[in-house]
Amino acid sequence: MKRTFGYDALTPSLRDFVVSLFRGANPLDRQVPLHPHAKVFLGRWKDSQAYKESFRAWADQMERELQIETTINGIDDPSVLGDWDTFEIFEKCTVHWLCRCFENGASTADLLDRIQKRRQSFWQPQHKEGYAALEHAVRLRELIESAELAAESIDAGVSRYVASWWRIDMAYRLCVRSLRAYGQVQLMAQVSQWVEKAYLNNFLLPLADRWSDQVCRLQRWECGSLTAQRQFFDKYVKPFLSKGQKVFVIVSDALRFEAAADFANRLQLANRWTAEVTAMLGSLPSYTQLGMAALLPGKELALNADTAAVTVDGESASGTENRSLILSVACSARATAIQAEDFLELNSKTDGRALMRDHDAVYIFHNRIDKIGDSAGTEAKTFDAVEQAFDELDQIIKKVANINGTNMLVTADHGFLFQQDDVHEDDMVPLPAADEWSYRGRRFAIGKSILPNPQVKVFASGDLDLIGEWSVAFPRSLGRFPLQGSGKRYVHGGISLQEVVVPVVKIHKARTDDTGQVEVEILRVPSKITTGQVAVSLFQTKPAIDKTLPRTLRVGLYSKDEKVLSEIKTYTFDSKETEARQRKVSIMLTLARAADAFNNQDVDLRLEETVLGTNQTVVYKTHTLRLQKPFASDFDEL
User: Fold this and answer.
1) Are residues 538 and 503 in the same domain?
2) Structural Rg of the chain based on CA atoms
3) Domain membership of residue 135 as a residue range
């Protein structure tokens, strides 16, 4: 033990050794110097599938007994911890410190670099949502600072939202979801407050103000740069039918554009899937009954002002059965509709194949986001519901593929507005004067002889291309009408970009593999190892975007006869940076005691990866170098 670890005690014992081992693995404790092999040993212990839980138990116990928290509270700069991950308190300290750095305006590059360096920590899985929340907050800050929220016309507004502004909504959603999942309210309080204020005051509100100014200038609800939602069937579904191809249309209630774009990006990374996102201008009012009807074939939409129910060419479009009938009539009985839950329960080999055989177009109606968000009791879980919707949509498209469907369209009836904090009373807009009100929602109200005022935009039914003798009032910007009992944070029905830019995701299942992993090059290695540590530089040749997937490698030194000579470090190469120098990684390896037996011999720097779906590793790349430590180093332990 003395030769291997440098452990020396007057009354040695196994427990005393453990205490010394953990003290020696604490960069804040200089009283117990151990040989470098101790770090290698701890690394293998943490990395062992069989024994890592015993490491966790001992680390927790030693953290308490050695009062590591008290020691950490006395340091000014937690960066002295480096990449040490002996105790979980190191991870907690790092997250706390990063929060303070963010609050104090640390640069994007510095924060992301520090987050990246903790990716391989033993304790990272317990704090991954905290790191994710910080990373999304950094991205949100960067996106808001670079955004120019000018909307000089309707066309300009929707074009810029589809091109880039949606990313701000996505960063906010992902950040809020991670903050909720992490659950450390006090720790993340200031980050959360900044996120809410920045998103609302620096993006959502000014954008809604400028966009509603343009909407208020319209005489009719139309946009030259986007296809109207009413044209969905003719533009997106009919081309497949005219070519004799089958198509599945998955309509996910309230899947707003940013969420659909995020889902498409995730799907694009999967093998054999292609996903292309386009946008439509949603129908007004932007609520479920009308949005669902607008996706069906038909010439005329009529809205009942008392019930808000919608008909297509005189036929009710409420419910799956009625929508299925409208599809069947329009497609000579070769189209139908089904609820997502019922579709997922079909036997793929029998009922699923029969559905595919008997129909050319199948609409699958899915409801997760609106079901959760559109209720005062559950609206706070809206962003959790988006992630659940992604999982369910993934199941649906895989089921379609299992019954030999290759062409899919994912779309929505409408989007939504959401903010995690409570809506301020200033955002409540009184209903304008009218002869009669027949239907009210948070973001729209239907009536007759509505008197316009500066707080609302009024459209007549004909201006919205709808049959009826009524008008509808929409609160400008982020305003909500008073409505007893309904939620305020999650709303739709109005004129905001988030509500009316409706996604269409074209999905195709290819027959051949179309993904590949990033390549990693060994960039710089010394020709000789002359100390107890060796620095290695690795380079990720391409960004991990589109179909180029990340690669996880184990890096270590080995003898020619396969003996491990250093600590083994795992690193995931998943950088999306387009700047080449940002994809360089430096790794420091500490030599194990076993390396002493191979002095003056050639050894291999080895990069290994795990075979997908197994625990087996294969060699990815190797580089030979000389282990040549000077004889004086043999006297270190004396």
Assistant:
1) no
2) 30
3) 2-202
Which tens digits make up the pLDDT trace of 261-311? 999 999 988 878 889 999 999 999 999 999 999 999 999 999 999 999 999
Within 8 A by CB and 6+ apart from 525, the residues are 534, 536, 537, 605, 623, 625
CA distance 225 to 205: 24
Domain count, the chain: 3
Question: Is 463 within the bounds of a domain?
Answer: no
Peptide bond connecting 36 to the previous residue in cis, omega within 30 degrees of 0: no
Are residue 309 and residue 194 in the same domain, yes or no?
A: no
Question: b/e map of 224-255 (b: 16 or more CB within 10 Å)?
Answer: eebbbbbebbeebbbebbeeeebbbbbbbbbb
317-371, pLDDT tens digit by residue? 999 999 999 999 999 999 999 999 999 999 999 999 999 999 999 999 999 999 9
The CATH number of the domain where 292 resides is what? Answer: 3.40.720.10
Which residues 6+ apart lie within 8 Å of 42 measured at CB?
21, 25, 55, 86
Residue 217 lies in a domain: no
**Torsion on CA atoms 306, 310, 315, 319, rounded to nearest 10:** -110
454 neighbors 504 (Cβ within 8 angstroms): no
393-404 pLDDT, tens digit per residue, is 999 999 999 999
Within this chain, do residues 329 and 416 fall inside the same structural domain, yes or no?
A: yes
User: Taking a C-beta distance cutoff of 8 angstroms, is the pair 531, 588 a contact?
Assistant: no
CATH code at 631? 2.60.40.2550
Burial (CB < 10 A; 0-12, 13-18, 19+), residue 598, is: buried
CB 611 within 8 A of CB 56: no
- Residue 416's pLDDT is 97
Are residues 536 and 501 located together in one domain of the fold? Answer: no
Euclidean distance between CA atoms 161 and 279, whole angstroms: 10
CA–CA separation, 397 vs 370, rounded Å? 20
Spatial CB neighbours of 434, under 8 Å, sequence gap ≥ 6: 447, 448, 449, 450, 451, 473
Answer yes or no: pTM beyond 0.85: yes
Query: Rounded to the nearest 10 degrees, how much is the dihedral formed by the CA atoms of 448, 453, 457, 459?
Result: 30
pLDDT exceeds 90 at position 539 = yes
Q: What three-state secondary structure class fits 620?
A: strand
Structural contact between residues 573 and 518, judged by C-beta atoms closer than 8 angstroms: yes
At 38-50, the pLDDT tens digits run: 888 999 999 888 9
Looking at 486, 509, 532, the residue that finishes a domain is 509
Q: Are residues 159 and 249 located together in one domain of the fold?
A: no
pLDDT over threshold 90, residue 524:
no
Burial 482-509 (b: 16+ CB within 10 A, else e): ebeebbbbbbbbbbbbbbbbbbbbbbeb
